[in-house]
């Protein structure tokens, strides 16, 4: 089982890719992947009007297998409808409250804070058994996936938890959850948990580092660091956090038909990779690219072409707009709350399919 394209790239490999992208925007790796660190080519490839690529999103695939398109469609529609009924500001207030009371491991704290905020949509407030299953999923399978603490995802544990969720959902599903074949119901539900909680908690780890830590990870502060906490617009803080530390740090698509992309020929079966992390720090698109400067967003005309934290085109994130509003609201509530004490335990960020902050302990003064 995989959670998508987990290559054991690690932080070192990710930085190597970044450095290569700085020298050469479009190239083929030794492993044969075609890397597009050119905003125009990257967007054109992902939007894919000619149907040259397979759009099955690889990023959130907890079961490691592609679900039938009809099932994915049902899940996406449910997520879409559910988000439309939610207030990002209210969810952010719950998240920040939970974080204020949390102690210990940062990643675990963020996973649980985001889950708690989403307990209504996920049906956890009505069903204790579902809550226990989700907690175990997050604490074991998902946490190790986020931090890279296990060499391989625990296939057996995932299957067991998916089966347990499936049984509970037969009698008590969250509001509006699609009617599905019992064989996939639990897996789809854990996929929904992953969508609601996964990348948001990774983004939250980075937001906390940006706003609560004295020193940034792989970035510099703008001239006046206090401005960030008190003066910058929350939406700009959210966008700048997603620019410098995108949880989905690369988007991959498999090529269906031979064709040309810019200077390269790509062949059926090749991987096309859009390196969001490198693109969003490329000096060609971003002045002072490694500086955390939320105010830069007030100088930009609209969403810049080289900003792709949620991918684009078929298969891209259905939660993108909600996520930006939620993360902005979290920044706003954090600025008004008591500072959260954090002690850094690891020096390197966690890099798997997801890019999240180095390990920290919360609550240590
Ligand atoms: C910072 C937070 C988030 C990031 C970085 C993110 C990123 C992404 C990306 C990159 C994809 C496409 C995968 C690919 O192109 O291979 C995706 C898909 C998806 N995202 Fe998000 N996402 C975030 C938050 C959310 C939230 C809050 C939700 C909903 C509650 C959500 C729901 C989904 C769903 C359902 C899909 C699958 C779309 C499909 O199957 O067609 N995401 N996300």
From TrEMBL:
UniProt keyword list: Heme, Iron, Metal-binding, Monooxygenase, Oxidoreductase
Protein's organism: Goodfellowiella coeruleoviolacea
Pfam families: p450 (PF00067)
GO molecular function: heme binding; iron ion binding; monooxygenase activity; oxidoreductase activity, acting on paired donors, with incorporation or reduction of molecular oxygen
Chain ranges passing through the membrane: none
CDD domains documented for this protein: cytochrome_P450 (cd00302)
Keyword Metal-binding: yes
Cofactor: heme
Protein name according to UniProt: Cytochrome P450
Family: Belongs to the cytochrome P450 family.
